[in-house]
Amino acid sequence: MASETLSPILNRPITPGTFGHVDTWVFDLDNTLYPGACNLFAQVDQRMSAFIQRYLGVPLPHARHLQKSFRPGSASIASR
């Protein structure tokens, strides 16, 4: 019988590929954890575009358009 990996905080199994075991998220919105020179937000922006492109199966320019047409200035995509 294979042993399960338990979350040390929640004491429940960790399912591979999920984040159910995570109870706290930390977001660096003001460059406190990472220096501004690393261009973290630019990297997040590019990865969001690539995800939208793959998920929807559309060309990258269209994915960027969709990404930027949702709540301009926001770091998230939300339905209207």
Topology:
Layout lengths: L39 H17 L3 H10 L11
Description:
The protein is an all-alpha fold and 80 residues long. The protein has two helices and no strands. α1 (40-56) crosses α2.
Given helix and strand content, the structural type is mainly alpha
- Low-pLDDT stretches are none
- The count of DSSP E runs of length 2 or more, i.e. the number of strands, is 0
Count of helix runs = 2
Topology pattern, helix = H, strand = E: HH
Task: Please tag this protein with its features.
80 residues; mainly alpha; 2 helices; 0% strand; flat
In a few lines, what is going on in this structure?
By secondary structure, this protein is mainly alpha-helical. The protein has helices at residues 40-56, 60-69.
